[in-house]
Write a structure and sequence with these properties.
Spore Coat Polysaccharide Biosynthesis Protein SpsA, Chain A, 10-stranded mixed sheet, 22% strand, alpha/beta, 258 residues
Length: 258
């Protein structure tokens, strides 16, 4: 197997003691072994840290970092990115999982396509690991298409720091994952998408991403913060471009997963 270089896997953790063991096991099962897993705990009050520490003791590629106060997933990810030593940065949240050959296939794909940024299709599952659907990505995404709607699963994103440098999460409490993808696409022409699903995204009840109404102001804030748009332009674009595209995507996914 070709060695493409060290991959730094970025994982924020907050009260995921019931799931993070599965996440770590999916990383340990990777057929591509040149990786480091950087988990930053955001002041969990459950047994998350104890679970992570057990894995750290088993495998030196796993490192636990800690925040002094609860600051959100974006800050936790940035602490891990800052400590990352790898050529490639990849993301896997503490309740998601990867296919065993995820890194091997995706890095080979990036090498073949000569791309600096990539993403893949992925499966969705519930809290009991039951498969609930599939999210099929497109072959390419660019800044213009991603402004219209977020079409890249964050748990599948990989970027090459040798080509575009380290890119950090913006200072936003929510929607910072979409904002980071926009920042990445400001640095490279496009993200190449692999049609093959290579990860499992867990949909949890009561999660931030499920509270769609409260995310509206954060979506608009992304346009203003990352793209420098005025409030008027950001609001008009969100309601007349983003929302129609988002609804079309939801209808397509509903049809695809019937």
């Amino acid at each position: 197997m070709k060695d493409f270089g060290l991959v730094s896997i970025i994982t924020p953790s907050y009260n995921c003691g019931g799931f993070i063991g599965e996440t770590i096991e999916s990383i340990l099962s990777q057929t591509y072994s040149n990786w480091e897993l950087l988990i930053t705990d955001d002041c969990s009050s459950d047994n998350s840290r104890e679970v992570i520490e057990e894995y750290c003791a088993r495998d030196p590629r796993i490192r636990l970092l800690r925040l002094e106060k609860n600051s959100g997933a974006g800050v936790a990810r940035n602490k891990s990115i800052e400590a990352a030593k790898g050529r490639f940065i990849a993301f896997c949240d503490s309740d998601d999982r990867w296919y065993p050959d995820k890194l091997e296939k995706q890095l080979s794909y990036m090498d073949c396509k000569k791309c600096d940024l990539s993403h893949t299709s992925y499966m969705t599952c519930d809290e009991d690991d039951r498969i609930t659907g599939i999210i099929v990505c497109r072959k390419h995404e660019n800044l213009a298409s991603m402004c219209k709607d977020d079409k890249m699963g964050f748990l599948t994103v990989v970027y090459d720091t040798h080509r575009i440098g380290k890119v950090y999460m913006p200072d936003l409490r929510k929607r910072q994952d979409w904002a980071l993808k926009l920042k990445l696409l400001q640095k490279c022409d496009m993200s190449c998408g692999m049609k093959e699903p290579l990860a499992y995204y867990r949909k949890r009840k009561g999660s931030i991403s499920n509270d769609k109404r409260s995310l509206i102001k954060y979506n608009i804030a992304v346009y203003k913060t990352i793209l420098g748009w005025s409030g008027i332009k950001a609001n008009i674009y969100f309601y007349f471009v983003f929302m129609p595209n988002h609804l079309i995507k939801l209808l397509y996914l509903k049809y695809l997963n019937i």
